[in-house]
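Case 439 in the screening queue. Each case pairs one protein sequence with one candidate compound; here the compound is magnesium ion. For every case the pipeline is the same: read the inputs, emit a complex structure as tokens, and attach any notable structural observations.

Predict complex for case 439.
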Amino acid sequence: MRLSRYFLPVLKENPAEAQIVSHRLMLRAGMIKQAQAGIYSWLPLGFKVLKNIENIVHEEQVRAGHIPMLMPTLQSADLWRESGRYDVYGEEMLRVTDRHGRDMLYGPTNEELITDIFRSHVSSYKDLPMTLYHIQWKFRDEIRPRFGVMRGREFLMKDGYNFDVDKASALHAYNRHMVSYLRTYERMGLHAIPMRADSGPIGGDNTHEFLVLADTGESEVFYDSAILDLKFGDRVVNFGDWDECAAIVKEWTTPYARTDETHDPALFEAIPEARRKSSRGIEVGQIFYFGTKYSEPLGATVQNAEGKPVPVHMGSHGIGVSRLLGAIIEASHDDNGIIWPEGVTPFHCGIVNLKQGDDEADAACEALYAALTAIGLEPLYDDRKERAGGKFATMDLIGLPWRITVGPRGLKNGVVELTSRRTGESEELSPEAAIEKIA
Ligand code: ATP
Ligand code: MG
Ligand code: MG
Ligand code: MG
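Case 439 output:
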């Protein structure tokens, strides 16, 4: 992409309405524009990162054996009356009526709709296990939308639902989700800690939230710092193997990590003091086993091996796709702007032409652009007639991992400058060597 042809409306001033750094940087980098309170347009740069995050989520869900699909945003109120949630859901639900007077709602979540699909088509245990998921916009009329996309009213969520014949297999689905989530967040450069969370009126310990540590997080969390040493890495997991998944879950749930709702001071005090940490965290996902809570009222049953009809055991598993942009920026920025982890960056590198219009500099930039593109990388070429300082500031603000600076002086010696956004270190290299380093 050439910057002269792109739409990147960066702001020079700090927007007054933004209270936290990720919101400020997303506005300044021209990634989003507020349409109404808690509702955002995704400008090209923001949209690109959103899609990258979405793709990682898809890849990891498919890797775990889960099946992608898409359900609508608008749902029928009648289905929610069947589960009993239409009246109890409260003010967060946006209710609408169509021209025929039929009650509808903008889905805040999809347990009812997915269970309706399931009960219409599946009737035998032989079709199980099955996990269906989608990535779709949700609406929750949050009382205090704030922090940009972090607590929006309209937001993008991955929500997946497992259907299993009994509790044991549903708990394997739970474990499978935890394992796939660990890998998902790590690919985004995040350390998201699974924390035992509150399962509300259902009870039990079958829910975990994934939290990214950040001062601006809305949750209070308590953990053993030993959990920060765990790394998923690129282990190859057999997601069909119950024991293998259970062992990984055990590894990550053994060190103490809880949100304030389930915090147990006695257990916490037992951790060596140096490892006892409390801080704030951003909830970027949650997994939940809830048994037959929806399958019973909605009549989602299958015949088991003995030919007996049994309600299916379910769980739902969410990832805050749009919230993740904010969480990643909270975890990865400096005074000059965003520092994108390689896994989600909107462009792989920036090319800064110090002397636009100089034949040699222009040609060198074009050659770099073509060479990077040819090996499947996406560069952002700042080909505007601007001062170098302004170009550097823009590149730092939008946070691409690498910047290649090209100017007549370096070209005389056959070199360009390669700068790492994260370390700030620069080196002079031949264009070929710079490309090799980025690739
Ligand atoms: P919170 O506690 O932050 O209100 P939640 O527990 O109500 O979130 P879930 O129902 O668990 O949310 O939804 C799954 C995921 O969707 C959450 O873990 C979070 O990452 C994301 N999410 C929830 N509400 C919002 C929101 N208003 N804006 C952006 N993302 C959200
Ligand atoms: Mg909520
Ligand atoms: Mg929550
Ligand atoms: Mg939650």
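Case 439 observations:
- The radius of gyration is 24 Å.
- The mean pLDDT is 96.
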